[in-house]
């Protein structure tokens, strides 16, 4: 029985999963889960990386106390684009900023003064966006030039954590492709682009392939946690790359994938980046996969809208349970109003319900007032936007996508799954839930030589976990709603 630790860190929570592989099936056990939200301080949003790492060590301690002292390796996957900076002595230069920080907007304005969106996209294959790593770096350079002067090494978030565990500095391929600083033609950091913005490319740690074994955990970690060394693996660092790897997509199946959580990543796997006028105009991006290919996808808003609405309601003393949420959606009249969930209005508003009301008012629609009206508006709008994305994926690839594989914590919202099937008029296969942790784990097992390749891994996933199928319903009503939605956006 082989055991690995999979750390899966999302933009709302983190978890440590223990995965056991008996040669036929994977067995997943949640060891530790903790909240993870940006911290607002001195008018900026930061990631509390020290607390995150402490929680990760707490998870390892729990696992060891449960008797799991024969774990062979660990790997980390996270959200994309964010990073930490290290000094020449290898120490962290402050808490990393969050991609939701306002400085990224100012950074994009500066970037676009020196390079057009088209040229930027042609170099990286990544959608020009304010959340891109280059925008944050540009903003830091303008506001805090001394910080970049002191920085010797830049490590993307999962690779920063790998460094804290192993002492080894390397940036993994899938997470590096999310930065817009990785040149897919050169298959390396775009030094010419970095020079264009006077960002020192010498600080960019080298890019390594998914599955690179960095080495054992540091002696100080082993002593602190009273553990034997385990191998630290630079697995697929981007949680969406892990999710795609673990979805039970059959070879030859004309399928789209959706990684569902705070964000929804909807796309298809392609052998080469799709870098065209249309893919740029429609906001698509090309990021790496675990097996060295590309994910042609669109970053779309996901359950962030509901998470932030519920946070406001909780502050107001009227929180709701998941069961109440389900019933409110069920009992609310459909198709009364829509929003475009991907506008910057909803990226990080102070009050999400008020922002939704303002959008509806500005677009001449009835304003939602009840929780059920807010929830149904969000879920219907999300599903309709996914159809918009799916149709453009088909145009970009020339393929008819017959099924959507959904994975991640967001699939626990059954309305999201059913509405997605209804809106797209496609069969939806939902599962597994912990798809990023599973992908993280199979990447480690491939690196350790326990699984041959990704095709075999997906067969193992299908044997190991259950899925739920959603068939399209009420197609005429959803078609009419989609036509209205298209007019709105």
Describe the structure in your own words:
The chain has 489 residues and is an alpha/beta fold. The chain has 2 domains: 2-239, Nucleotidyltransferase, domain 5 (2-Layer Sandwich); 249-431 and 452-489, 2-Layer Sandwich (Nucleotidyltransferase, domain 5), CATH 3.30.420.40. Helix content is 41%, strand content 21%. The protein has helices at residues 49-65, 103-112, 117-124, 133-143, 145-150, 157-166, 173-176, 191-196, 219-225, 239-246, 277-281, 304-315, 322-330, 352-362, 371-397, 414-424, 435-447, 454-464, 475-488; strands at 2-9, 13-21, 26-35, 39-41, 44-46, 73-77, 83-86, 153-156, 171-172, 182-183, 188-189, 207-208, 212-216, 231-234, 255-260, 263-270, 285-288, 294-301, 403-407, 427-430, 468-470. The strands form 6 sheets. Strands 17-18-16-15-19-20-21 form a 7-stranded mixed beta sheet, sandwiched between helices. A 6-stranded mixed beta sheet has the order 3-2-1-6-14-13. Strand 2 and strand 3 (26-35) form a beta hairpin. Helix 13 (322-330) packs across helix 15 (371-397) and helix 15 packs across helix 19. It is globular and about 60 Å long.
């Amino acid at each position: 029985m082989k055991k690995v630790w999979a750390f899966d860190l999302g933009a709302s929570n983190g978890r440590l999963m223990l995965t056991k592989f008996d040669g036929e099936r994977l067995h997943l056990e949640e060891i530790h889960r903790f909240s993870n939200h940006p911290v607002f301080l001195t008018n900026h949003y930061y990631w509390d990386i020290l607390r995150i790492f402490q929680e990760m060590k707490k998870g390892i301690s729990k696992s060891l106390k449960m008797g799991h002292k024969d774990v062979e390796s660990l790997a980390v996957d996270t959200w994309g684009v964010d990073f930490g900076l290290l000094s020449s002595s290898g120490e962290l230069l402050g808490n990393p900023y969050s991609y939701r920080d306002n400085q990224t907007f100012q950074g994009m304005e500066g970037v676009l003064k020196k390079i057009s969106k088209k040229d930027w996209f042609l170099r990286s294959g990544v959608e020009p966006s304010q959340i891109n790593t280059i925008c944050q770096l540009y903003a830091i350079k303008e506001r805090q030039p001394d910080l970049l002067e002191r920085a010797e090494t830049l490590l993307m978030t999962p690779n920063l954590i790998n460094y804290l565990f192993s002492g080894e500095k390397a940036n993994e391929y899938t997470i590096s492709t999310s930065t817009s600083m990785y040149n897919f033609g050169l298959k390396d950091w775009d030094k010419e682009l970095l020079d264009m913005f006077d960002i020192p490319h010498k600080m960019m740690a080298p890019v390594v392939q998914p599955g690179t074994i960095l080495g054992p955990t540091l002696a100080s970690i082993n002593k602190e946690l009273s553990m034997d060394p385990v191998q630290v693996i630079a697995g697929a660092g981007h949680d969406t790359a892990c999710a795609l790897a673990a979805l039970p997509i059959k070879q030859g199946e004309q399928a789209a994938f959706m990684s569902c959580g705070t964000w929804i990543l909807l796309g298809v796997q392609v052998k080469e980046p799709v870098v065209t006028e249309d893919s740029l105009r429609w906001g698509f991006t090309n990021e790496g996969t675990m097996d060295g290919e590309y994910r042609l996808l669109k970053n779309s808003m996901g359950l962030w809208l509901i998470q932030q609405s519920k946070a406001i309601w909780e502050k107001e003393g009227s929180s709701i349970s998941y069961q109440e949420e389900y019933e409110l959606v069920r009992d609310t009249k459909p198709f009364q109003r829509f929003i475009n969930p991907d506008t910057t209005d909803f990226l990080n508003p102070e009050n999400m319900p008020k922002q939704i009301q303002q959008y509806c008012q500005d677009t001449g629609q009835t304003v939602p007032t009840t929780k059920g009206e807010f929830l149904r508006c969000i879920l219907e709008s999300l599903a309709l936007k996914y159809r918009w994305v799916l149709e453009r994926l088909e145009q970009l690839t020339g393929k008819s996508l017959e099924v959507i594989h959904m994975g991640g914590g967001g699939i626990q919202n059954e309305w999201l799954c059913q509405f997605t099937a209804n809106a797209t008029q496609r069969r939806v296969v939902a599962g597994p839930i912990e798809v990023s942790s599973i992908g993280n784990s199979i990447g480690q097992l491939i690196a350790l030589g326990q699984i041959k390749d990704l095709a075999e891994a997906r067969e193992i996933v299908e044997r190991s976990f259950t899925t739920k199928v959603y068939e399209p319903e009420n197609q005429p009503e959803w078609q009419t709603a989609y036509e209205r939605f298209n007019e709105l956006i």
